[in-house]
Amino acid sequence: MSEITYEYIREYLMAIEPDENSLLNNIREDAIKKNVPIIKSEVKNLLRCMLAVKKPKMILEIGTAVAYSTIIMSDFIDESGKIITIERSNEMIEKAKKNIKLANKEDKITLLEGDASKILPSLTESFDVIFMDAAKGQYLTFYPECLRLLKKDGLLISDNVLQNGMVAKSRFSIPRRQRTIHNRMRQYLWELNHNPNLQTSILPIADGVTLSYKKCD
Fold first, then answer.
1. Could you give the C-alpha distances from 21 to 18, 64, 189, in angstroms and in order?
2. What residues have CB less than 8 Å from 56, skipping those under 6 apart?
3. Average pLDDT over all residues of the chain
4. Backbone dihedral region of 65: left (phi > 0), alpha (psi from -120 to 50 degrees) or beta?
5. Alpha helices in 75-201 (DSSP H)
6. Over 60: is that where the pLDDT of 172 sits?
7. How many CB atoms lie within 10 A of CB 108?
8. Phi, psi values for residue 22, rounded to 5°
9. CB-based contact 87:93 (threshold 8 Å)
10. What is the pLDDT of residues 58-92, one digit of tens each?
11. What is the enclosing helix (H) or strand (E) of 68?
12. Is the dihedral of CA 124, 89, 187, 194 positive or negative?
């Protein structure tokens, strides 16, 4: 059972959701079957709600995986907008390309292949929304570039920040092999909360999500 959300609550919330379209449902079921990490249901609905309010023209996603969240977000940008998404796994890239094509979203979604730490400094666009869902130990590395690329009044959304409650525990109660990620995620959450140019909320849903609003350039 999750140490963030009771399982019976998650099951109830999922039971009352409207049906998903067949493509997204197939992508989700295939990802679960193959143990590919994708956003949880609560995060999916949070993204949809926030994007419906924000009405972004430019979205940056760090961590495409199989493009499940990418395709979901693409429904909330207008005809002139686009999503740039970054993925480094060759296996995920091939699956993402296939799913983007099946969704008929190739004109809205640009997939950049490679390590985000190398790609982010080369980007010159400004983004209304940045969705971070990549290697958790790298969030702190990506953070300065995200601030540079995020527009004034933009929204930085970071997924899986509580890591099944592990981040809230003492480092001495964490297995040694996980302590580096534990420490870096704690630093990341501290930076988000103490940056005077950000208004941040940490939501204890799914595996933990942060919403960070950028006040000015």
1. 10, 20, 34
2. 76, 77, 81, 127, 128, 129
3. 92
4. left
5. 90-102, 116-119, 139-149, 179-194
6. no
7. 21
8. -65, -35
9. yes
10. 999 999 999 999 999 999 998 889 999 999 999 99
11. helix 68-74
12. positive
With a CB cutoff of 8 Å and minimum separation 6, the contacts of 155 are 50, 54, 128, 129, 130, 211, 212, 213, 214
- Assigned token pair, 74: 């693409």
Residue 1: pLDDT band (50, 70, 90) is very low
Residue 160 region by backbone torsions, left for phi larger than 0, else alpha for psi between -120 and 50, else beta: left
46-65 tens-digit pLDDT = 999 999 999 999 999 999 99
**Is the pLDDT confidence value at 196 over 70?**
yes
> Is residue 3 pLDDT above 80, yes or no?
no
Torsion 98-99-105-111 (CA) sign = negative
Could you give all domains of the chain from N- to C-terminal order, each with its CATH number? 7-214 (3.40.50.150)
Q: How far apart are the C-alpha atoms of 160 and 132, rounded to whole Å?
A: 9
pLDDT at residue 175, rounded to an integer: 73
pLDDT in tens, 108-143: 999 999 999 999 999 999 999 999 999 989 999 999
CA atoms of 127 and 153, how far apart (whole Å): 10
For residue 151, report the phi and psi dihedrals to the nearest 5 degrees: -70, 160
Tell me how far apart the alpha carbons of residues 60 and 70 are, in angstroms, rounded to a whole number: 9
| Contact status, residue 197 vs residue 216, Cβ threshold 8 Å | yes
